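pinned: reference chain
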Amino acid sequence: MRLIPTVDDFTSDPVVQAYDDMVNPPGLTNFLGAVQADHDVTAVRSVNFAPVSHGDTVTGSLWIDGRLLRSFGAAVAIQWRPDRVVRSTRLGDLIVESTTVTPPGVAGVAVDVVVTNTSAAERGVRLGLSVASTATQAGAWRTPEPPSEPNTLAPVPGRAALLGRAATTEAVSVQGLDADGARVRERMLEVDVRLEPGERYRFGYVHVVGTDAEGALAAYDTVVADVLGQVEAARRLWDATLEAAFTPGNDQFSGHVPTLETSNDALRRLYWWGVMGVIWFRRDSPASHLGRVYDTLMPRYWQGTTFIWDFSLSSMIHALLDPEPMRRQIEHWISLDIHRHFGTEWQTGGPAGYWYSVNDYAMIRLVRDYVRWNGAPDFLGVELAAHDGPAKAVAEHVADWATAWEGLRTSHALADYGEIDNLLECVSSYVHEVAGLNAANVWCLRAAAEVAELRGDGGRAQELRKKADALVPEVGELYVEGQGFWHARRPDGRLVPVRHCYDFTTVGMTIAADLPERRREEMVAFFVRELQTPAWMRALSPYDDDAAFSLRPDHQWNGAYPAWPADAARSLIELGRPDVAAAWLPGLARSANQGPPGQAHFVEEAGEPVNGGAVKSPPQFPYLIDWSCSSAGAWSALVVEGFFGLRPELDGSLTVSSRLASVDRSAVLRGLRVGGRLVDVTIAGAVDAQPAHSSGEA
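pinned: its structure tokens
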């Protein structure tokens, strides 16, 4: 049994696409920036390595005998794994295959291309790649797509390459081939070859960006001299990174995650999916104002931005794997006004976007997870200044966030979270007084009470718990009796039923124990009846009146954001039905077959599944979905906190409420770090960890 995954364990199922199919092509990263494969065999787009960006420009499109490959209509098969994207197509008697990587330490991409003549006769073929360059340099990327600007293109003396230069900055791109006899035209790189029957011909395409021509050319020369070596180097980088993530005392992360021993393949796959899906967003860019950071989306939208909400959904993995950058990120957000933006862009550290109403809840989750998983209660006493006042202890900031909702009350007892942009953005009925976030306020008050009690302020703890208890029945007034879902209340008092998963997941994860048994049963029945699908879930019931409002699948009837199924399974567990969550796992694991979790996956009715897995939703309008999203850590939390039932407390104590009987009674988490202690966790509880197997096998 393998305990530490390699890149091979994440190899995706092939996705086959023809021209303009609604396919979201995969991305790549070397932790400096990101690149996205495009819809033919060689093309790439979104080649963005801060501080240099290309926007979403497509370049490197393949031409065969003077004709654009895409125009032939040949289907392209695409397969991803963390270190590479492999693409292939057949055009008559030619097979074209490519391997695309982001070379370690390089702001760029390399594509190794192999063309095979499958006919019984010799034939000549002209191979061309069209080049586009829109490189620019900007200090803050505060829009969904990174900036770009027109470039001039000119041949590079002594190289089969074109140099793109920005008009207003020093940014450049270098794009070229490693092929003997290659020639350069105005916007084209070409080479003519003759192939014997069965003969294979390879060449490499390299695309590097930089802040000056000299540095970019030097990087280009290094990569183009050994494209195959760069392919292997990318594999070594990712295998070493994965091994480090699961190894105590490694030299890549400030922490590590435990290994999982289980005979349940679905449980293992989802756990690994969550860990890899967080590592995927690590950025060690020299352009970062904050040092190491973790992006939220890639490879197309909001690069260079970290959203508070999404970061909090992977909170447990951040706390275990890399607590030092997590702490810096928390401290940075404390210094800003979290009620005026949804996150920060890391080239300047400045705010990005508008206010998300979840921010108070998200910040308390982040602080609490950092403290309890790292045994760091002293952090609660660290004095930090917010944007609008003097320095005060982190514990005081927690109390402020826990009571911020009181300032949002109008004529009713619950917080009014405003309009659509503050909440789910594409569900017009989920506005104002919503059950999910008001239930979260109950949890926040109790979390702040734990902080106060730990710091010796029993009076404040009692006051906060009293407020929480008083708020529970007020939240209960939003329940739709007998139906399992909740109302949203308008400012005029009108109750509008909303069959959305965010109420199901958040109410279940925050106040399940406060609900009558009948309501818990009704909520589970509603979820199974209207939201759950075999391999994914609907964020909004198709029976909801708002289901026709939008086609954005992260929050609508046609799909769900990647953390929602994981959190829905957590909610099922908290509502007393781990068996329902366990039975769902094999289908969910089938959806872990296309790389890290997408910003949304389609449900089966909306998009043809890929080998039984819910297909990633596409980036085109009206869907506007990126290929991957950093909230993947919710899947690992489902395993650790959901099925293993781990509960580290602020005071350093650890409790285990195991639900492993529903998935694998013999499963073991090995080397789990809780404070300064390493423990192994079984169905019987936690004990001091045994020495690890040096081979990574069990």
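why pinned: The chain has a mean pLDDT of 96. Residues 253-682 form a domain with the Glycosyltransferase fold (CATH 1.50.10.10).
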